[in-house]
Specification:
- It is built from six helices and three strands; from the N terminus they run ααββαααβα.
- The chain has about 180 residues and is mostly helical.
- It folds into two domains: about 45 residues; about 130 residues, no CATH class.
- The chain has a three-stranded antiparallel β-sheet.
- Strand 1 and strand 2 form a beta hairpin.
- Helix 2 runs antiparallel to helix 3, helix 2 packs antiparallel against helix 6 and helix 3 packs antiparallel against helix 4.
- The protein is flat and about 75 Å long.
- Keywords: Membrane, Transmembrane, Transmembrane helix.
Length: about 180
C-alpha cells in the first residue's frame, strides 16, 4: 500500500516536472498560430474592395448588436430600484441570421450567398417590424409596453441591418462590374 502511494506520488511529480518543461513550447506554438491567423486575416482584408470592407464591418456590427439586450425596464423592490435589460423573444433568430450572414458573406463568396443574404435580411426586417408593431407577441410577454424602453442596441441593430443591406447591394454590384470586365 505505501509503495503504491509512493509510486503514485513519484508519477505525479514526474508528470508535473514534464508539464512545466512543456509550457514554453506550448506558449510558442500558440503565439505562432495566433500570429499566422492574424496575418492571414490581414492579408484577406487587404485584398477586399472598399465596399466589401464596409460591408464586412456592418455584418460584424449586426452580429454584435443582435447579441446585446435591446430593452430595459425599471423594477422596484421596496426602496431599491433596479434596471433590467432583456433581449427579444426571437433573439435566437436574429443572432443566427446575423452569424450566418457574417460567416457566409464575410469569408465565402458564392452565387447562393447573395440569395441567402437578401432573404436573411428581409426575414430580420420583417421580424423587427412585426415586433415593433406587436411587441407583446414577438419581443417580450411579461412586461407592460409602457414600462419598457428601447435601448441604444436596438437602434444600432436597425442601423447595422440597413447599412449591411445597402453595402451588400453595392458590394455585389461592384463585384459584378469587376467580373464583367474580365
Amino acid at each position: 500500500m505505501t509503495s503504491s502511494l509512493l509510486s503514485k506520488f513519484f508519477l505525479i511529480v514526474q508528470f508535473l516536472k514534464e508539464s512545466v518543461f512543456f509550457v514554453p513550447d506550448l506558449i510558442f506554438a500558440w503565439w505562432h498560430l495566433t500570429k499566422k491567423i492574424f496575418l492571414t486575416l490581414y492579408s484577406y482584408w487587404n485584398h477586399k474592395i472598399f465596399f466589401d470592407k464596409i460591408f464586412f464591418i456592418f455584418l460584424f456590427l449586426q452580429l454584435l448588436f443582435s447579441v446585446l439586450p435591446w430593452f430595459s425596464y425599471q423594477i422596484r423592490f421596496f426602496e431599491i430600484t433596479e434596471s433590467i435589460s432583456l433581449g427579444p423573444k426571437l433573439n435566437s433568430v436574429f443572432i443566427l441570421l446575423a452569424l450566418l450572414n457574417f460567416f457566409f458573406l464575410g469569408f465565402w463568396k458564392s452565387s447562393w450567398t447573395r440569395i441567402w443574404f437578401f432573404a436573411g435580411q428581409m426575414i430580420s426586417i420583417v421580424f423587427v417590424i412585426w415586433g415593433y408593431l406587436d411587441p407583446k407577441r414577438y419581443f417580450y410577454d411579461f412586461v407592460k409596453p409602457e414600462e419598457l424602453g428601447l435601448g441604444l442596441p436596438f437602434y444600432l441593430f436597425l442601423g447595422s441591418l440597413f447599412g449591411a443591406f445597402v453595402f451588400g447591394y453595392l458590394t455585389f454590384k461592384r463585384e459584378d462590374e469587376l467580373l464583367g470586365r474580365i
